[in-house]
Design brief:
This protein has about 300 residues and is an alpha/beta fold. The protein has helices at about 25-40, 55-60, 80-90, 110, 135-140, 145-155, 170-180, 240-245; strands at about 10-20, 40-50, 65-70, 95-100, 125-135, 155-160, 185-190, 220-230, 250-260, 260-270, 270-275, 290-300. About 25% of the residues lie in helices and about 30% in strands. A 7-stranded parallel sheet has the order 3-2-4-1-5-6-7, with helices on both faces. Strands 8-12-9-10-11 form a 5-stranded antiparallel sheet, with no helix packed on it.
Length: about 300
Amino acid sequence: MAAISTKQARIPALVVSGFLGSGKTSLVSHLLTEAQRLGLRIAVVSNELGELGVDRALLGGGGEAFIEIEGGCVCCELSDDLINTLQTLHDQVNPDRIVIETSGVALPFDTQLNFWREPVSAWIGDDMAVVVVNAEQLLEGRDLEGTFQDQVSSADLLVLNKIDLIDESKLKEVEARLREIEPEAPLVRSVRGQVEPNLLFPPDAMTVDRSGTAPTSLPHTHEAFSTTVWDVPEGMPEAQIEAELDDPSLLRAKGFVVTENGCRLIQLVGRRIEWNDAEPAPDPRQIGRVILIRRTSEDAH
């Protein structure tokens, strides 16, 4: 009679990072669609800087395999919440893969260090940090220091996203600028986060031994960002909303509002504003509220 192995199966983990508005949620949505097609169970932990639950709505609600951690960053002040959440997903869902979508200001390597903590160190296998980069942000030279630089330099794989928003003749220039920050990590191009899933997960989750000492984080700049919620009156014209958001200090805005065109999702990244119909329909409690994110200060760690 063959001996029964008591070795716990390990689950590969993917950390999806990237600066505010880079397209992380689009990438995660694509992964969920592909997982459903292939019959794989993917558990998602989404970390939003604000507390409106916009990403949950954009990912279709999620169900038991989706948990949102709001109000801070899982790489630092919410790291204990991350550990508890991962263990809950392991015990209740037993997924084939774990995906952690960090907030736009979190640092991927610091998030990965949590995988060495008990009890998750017993079952998390090999892990990978994918950093999504907004091609338009690179071309404009906007917000490329501090958090952005720390995120990019700790990537295992770089996804140059939103390449459809820039002229094709500028792609080499944009990639060269990215290579000045991170010269070695593999790089793939994408539109709306459409990346082959096999590129994003380590091929052999069982090869990691987390019984030793965890790696240490290098000194880095951890900037501080503030979030506020703007309550938008129902029926406010889209042109007026855009005018209200014309603020150079504003890095990111997103939320659901009712305008002359119905219930709409508005997203601001830099100076670009995008409008889309709100599909699927969000929770009524989310409508009329837009989260605004600004940089405030920075600290060295």
